[in-house]
Amino acid sequence: MISGPTGEVDSPRQIGDGWRPGPPLMLILNVADIHFRHPECNTPMDPDRPYRTLLVRDARERVAVLGPANVILVGGDIAYHGLVEEYDSALRWLSELADAAGCTLSDVFVVPGNHDVDRGVIKNRADVRNAQRAVSSARPERRERELWEQFRDAKAGPSLLAPVDAYNQFAARFNCQVYAPDKLFWHQDRPLTDSVRIRFYGLTSTLLSGAGASRNEDDSRLSLYLSPFQTGLDPVEGVVNAVICHHPPDWFMDQDDVDDAIRGRAELHFFGHKHRQRIHRDANYVRFSAGAVNPDRNEPGWEPGYNLIKLSVNDDGKSLWLDVEAHLLTWQTNPDGFHPKNDGRGALVFGHRLTLRRATVRDPRTPAGSPVAPSDPKPPTARGTEGNADGEVAMSEPHTRNLVLSFWNLASSQRREIAQRLKLITDEEMKLPEPERYGRALIRASERGLLAQVAAEVERLEKKA
Question: How many CB atoms lie within 10 A of CB 191?
Fold first, then answer.
């Protein structure tokens, strides 16, 4: 039983007003708030381990029926204190989860949450506190400009991101790191059909998170700031925009602007933080609030959970639709395990249909070689030696993400050797933190058409090991 676009309930084979979901094109596994806490997570006494273990087992059983996952979205709070040791444990678990879900680590996308912020950095560094204070205390009409000036400043920009240094080191292997002054969020593409692509936007909601750390104060609603710099979300025809952000809009000073922009420019929304598993279906979007994988066991309404979302595209030649079928899996004790929520009317799958605009021209950021809608006989030529104006989007292809993962699995000296051999970094950039240094180098390789050479160098060094 699946709820159709009008809210009616009908047979899953004949939904709503008579439409049928098309063949599945993408299965998304959505988790958030994993909360790997050191030292517990690195000992046999970790009390949260059973929930993660059983989630992996549940995912393996479900994808055996639904088909393998194509993407794993991790909505923040991967760590608990933002420590390297916590990310080491998280990486091992995500590798297990990806294997169980039928995909690889290169199919994982991550964003930071407030627990990915190392508050010790904020307490110990006045430059971080000063940069945060400059933005948070600015007048509302001035705050956007203040963030721009701080983030673009050679000293203040890196200070704003210093509390997520360990997260950035972890996120770099997924090409999801952020750095000043160029990359406040990430965006990556995956194809759905010959003419429809999904573009994932990973937003950074933590720039002001932990600002009260020196006073032992937690973040509160309306204490964070996202800004229009992250909510442009360029609504291109033929591209389904999907937003992944740890904090939902009501945590931002600019909550109304954030909510309006995301609602108006993105079809799929993925939030975490609240530890409540919810789905909201609107005529123009579907919004998911991921249940925490490991919420605090003492909090009211404690309920581990995760989501599986199946996407398909229906095209009758006149209209184009995105069909969304969501399985919301939540924890049940005695017997232990994850079980599907129902939609209040007995259906165990939440379904919805969204109308899409058919692409008539190629999005200039679409990687070369990707098919163009038939209605565009002469697609415009994009910049760049690989036919792409956006080197980051060009790196979205699975084989390239595999390359990024392999690159980050090399030793630091080997990464440096490749970047210098292919002249992908300058001497000045060698002073940058590694996630930024080699993030820039790989995007530059994409823009210059040198990814094949990078792959050859990686393979050469792997064979030497």
Answer: 17
Entry pTM: 0.89
Q: What is the tens place of the pLDDT at every residue in 308-353?
A: 999 999 988 888 999 999 999 999 888 889 999 987 777 899 999 9
pLDDT (tens digit, 9 = 90+) per residue, 148-165?
999 999 999 999 999 999
Tokens of residue 19, six digits: 């439409």
* 2-356: in CATH 3.40.50.300: no
Q: How far is CA 34 from the centre of its chain?
A: 14
Angstrom distance (rounded) from CA 435 to CA 443: 12
Identify the band that residue 13 occupies on the pLDDT scale cut at 50, 70 and 90: very low
Instruction: Give pLDDT tens digits for 60-114.
Output: 999 999 999 999 999 999 999 999 999 999 999 999 999 999 999 999 999 999 9
Q: What residues does each domain of the chain span? A: 2-356, 391-464
